[in-house]
Amino acid sequence: MELYLDTGNIEEIKSVIHTGQISGITTNPTLILKSHTSDLKTFKDILLEIISVMKEERDDFTLSAEVTHINSVEEIISQGRELASIDSHIIVKVPLTKEGLEAVKTLSYEGIRCNVTLCFSLTQAVLAAKAGAWCVSPFVGRIEDEGYSGINLLQQIKQTYDNYNFKTKILAASLRSVEHVHQAMLLGVDMATIPKSVFDKLYYNPLTDIGVKQFSKDWEEFENARK
Length: 227
Fold this sequence. Notes:
Layout: E1 2-6, H1 10-17, E2 22-26, H2 29-35, H3 43-55, E3 62-66, H4 73-86, E4 90-95, H5 98-109, E5 114-119, H6 122-131, E6 135-138, H7 140-145, H8 150-164, E7 169-172, H9 178-187, E8 191-194, H10 196-201, H11 206-224
Helix pairs in contact: 1-3, 4-5, 5-6, 6-8, 8-9
C-alpha cells in the first residue's frame, strides 16, 4: 500500500518526507485554508512549494490538487487542465458529482489523471471507474460519522473493482486512526491518505518500547560487567 500525507502544511511535509514512507500528498480546499490563512500565497504557489519539497527526497510522487470551479462541466475541465499544466506530478482532484464525472471523462481521455473525491457509495465508485478516474477516494471517517461502516464500503469497492477488472485505484481517505489504516491494508486497497497525527502513530507499539528499554538495560549491564 502507498501512503499519502493529507495536508497543505509545508512544515508537516518537510517533517515526514525524509522517512521515505510517503508516496505523495493529497490536499483539499479545507486543508489549504487551514494551513495558509495568514499568507498571501496563491494556490499555484503553494502547489509549486509542495512539489519542490517533495522533489528534494524523491521524484516518483503525486500531488492531488482539487478543482474549486465546480458550477459546470466546462469550468471543471478548464481548471483541471490548468492544474495539470503546472507540473506532471499533479493529479487533478474532482468531486464525485454528475458534472465532475463528465469532466473526468474528458480529462482522462486527454491523459490527465483524476482523483475522484467525496465518494460515499459503491455505485458512485463504479461510475467514477467507468468515467476513467485514475483513483477514487472513499471517505471512511465521514461515512462512519453518519453511522455506517466506511471499511465495509472499501471492501465492497475492492471486490467490485476486482470483479469487473476496473483499473481505477482505491485511495482510502478520511482515515482517522491506526485501526482504519490497519483495516485498509488487510483489504488490499492501493493507497491510503492520512493526516500527520495518524502517520506518527503508525510507528508505535507498547511492546516495542518495552523491548527497547529491556535491551538497553541489559546492554548497560553487559558493558558494566566488563569495566
